[in-house]
Design goal:
single chain; 21 helices; alpha+beta
Length: 504
């Protein structure tokens, strides 16, 4: 836990600004921060931060600025990069923000707040170290890229954002980089924080630290990379929706995701590797499979390509070839192949949220509808909400569906669960094996049978009351999750072969 990032988090909280879907979880720590600093809500640092954030200085930019500053005086420790200066539209804005933040820290006695929460921070750190265990994720990426950086830092940021992270890097004295993975919790409530399991730490370390190896190469070759920027046009809309607004950023993400997929093949397994490719293609990363195929050449010829930067020209050559051949419309068509996350990242205007109209527990049904309305407000703003009976009358080929309720109370779910190989019994759910519990819940994605490019996501349970707040269960990276209450019993992907989905 870094003082500079916590100071930024506090000012961000007071400003009321948050990036899409990344408002901090409601917790005791968040409430204590708001209470401690409430007298300083009108400090100029808060207003200036909000102004800058709303004009584009958001996401990774503010935490990157903080890492260029010393603590506690907030002086410039490492010269600002061209990237950071451009994001702020001038070095004077960076200097002003640093000065205002320093004054806020002094006037609000931030040091006392940080000190009194030291036991809380220690608990977060202990949990992360236990989760990572003996795994050396850094060694895995250094071996793949053929080089190393000056230092690697995982920063837990409990109230900066939710889920995912940022991967900024700061120049070190020896010419290499100090790289960071600033990560938010995947879930939190009251005094409990969940920063994810071992797989989550691994994927973030691979991805966020990967930026320090890939981004400088793209920047160095930016003139040639830009020659093939027409490849951005067919995927621009999906990329912009994920905060990748230009071709150079898109290229970095493609390469890093392809490397992560190949690392998955090497260290985890072939089926997980295929799932990784499919998941990223569903998100709009159309060139990832070609990149992965190219990276196998890199892996097989390491005596020639001893370091990733030596191979980078081959990546540019691949984009050149694609640009000249002009991939047709079929190249960009994507059949839905999982996961839940991918199912929720299709065309924003295509979603219909299906709520139950026949639950016997009327009170629970009202709460389910309210939860669905909250999902629309926070995540699927362009979606329509319909009762099950109305949704069944639609031309299903035009939509992706997100359905809530039990099979008895939601006729849409009843119809679609017939094809899904998960069966509910009395206090049990049968997958490849049976799982029992008093509050069984099931979340799954499935191809839309009327249009293989679209998806269906079902949030269901044995009892209607257990569908309420079902989104609180950690889900997304896999095809399905079975849980008893909030205790996850099984989280996995389906086996896909010949267009058929089966349990592994």
């Amino acid at each position: 836990v870094d003082e500079r990032i916590e100071l930024l988090s506090v000012i961000r909280l007071l400003s009321g600004f948050s990036e899409k879907n990344h408002a901090a979880f409601e917790t005791v720590y968040k409430k204590s921060a708001l209470e401690f600093f409430k007298k300083h809500k009108n400090h100029p640092a808060v207003a200036f931060y909000k102004k800058m954030a709303e004009s584009g200085f958001s996401y990774d930019a503010p935490p990157t600025l903080m890492l260029h500053l010393s603590w506690p005086d907030m002086k410039v420790k490492t010269p600002f990069t061209e990237y950071l200066t451009a994001r702020a539209r001038g070095v004077e804005n960076l200097d002003k923000m640093a000065g205002l933040f320093a004054d806020f820290a002094k006037q609000s006695d931030f040091a006392s707040f940080f000190k009194q929460n030291a036991p809380f921070y220690s608990g977060l750190l202990d949990g992360a170290l236990k989760t990572i265990g003996s795994n050396d994720f850094v060694a895995q990426i250094e071996k793949y890229y053929g080089t190393g950086q000056a230092g690697y830092n995982i920063v837990l940021a409990p109230i900066l954002r939710r889920q995912g992270g940022y991967g900024p890097a700061v120049n070190s004295d020896d010419g290499r980089l100090d790289v960071y993975n600033i990560m938010g919790p995947v879930d939190a409530s009251e005094d409990k924080y969940d920063f994810g399991g071992t797989e989550h730490f691994r994927s973030l370390v691979w991805h966020e630290f990967g930026h320090s190896f890939v981004n400088p190469l793209t920047e160095k070759n930016s003139a040639e990379v830009e020659l093939y920027s027409k490849l951005f046009t067919p995927i621009a809309k999906k990329m912009a929706g994920q905060a990748y607004p230009n071709w150079q950023t898109c290229v970095n993400e493609h390469i890093i995701r392809a490397v992560c997929a190949r690392l998955t093949a090497v260290h985890i397994g072939e089926s997980e590797y295929i799932a990784e490719i499919n998941n990223n293609r569903a998100k709009g990363f159309a060139y990832i499979e070609d990149l992965c195929n190219l990276l196998t050449v890199y892996e097989q010829q390491r005596s020639q390509y001893f370091e990733f930067k030596v191979f980078y020209p081959q990546i540019i050559a691949m984009f050149k070839k694609l640009s000249e051949s002009g991939p047709g419309a079929d190249y960009y068509k994507i059949k839905f192949t999982g996961t839940i996350n991918a199912a929720l990242m299709l065309d924003p205007a295509s979603y219909v949220i299906v709520v139950p109209g026949g639950e016997k527990d009327v009170a629970a049904q009202k709460k389910i509808v309210k939860c669905a309305e909250n999902v629309k407000k926070m995540f699927l703003k362009k979606a329509k909400i319909m009762k099950d009976s109305d949704a069944l009358k639609l031309d299903a080929s035009k939509y992706s569906f997100v359905a809530y309720g039990t099979s008895e109370g939601n006729s849409f779910i009843k119809k679609h669960m017939e094809a899904i190989p998960a069966k509910f019994g009395s206090n049990e759910i049968e997958l490849k094996e049976k799982y029992s519990g008093k509050n069984l819940r099931f979340i799954t994605c499935w191809p839309n049978p009327a249009n293989a490019e679209r998806a269906v996501v079902i949030y269901t349970a044995l009892n209607a009351a257990d569908v309420v707040n079902i989104n609180n269960i950690f889900h997304g990276p896999t095809d399905y999750v079975a849980a008893d209450g909030e205790n996850i019993l099984k989280s996995s992907n389906y086996k896909k072969s010949g267009g058929e989905w089966k349990l592994k």
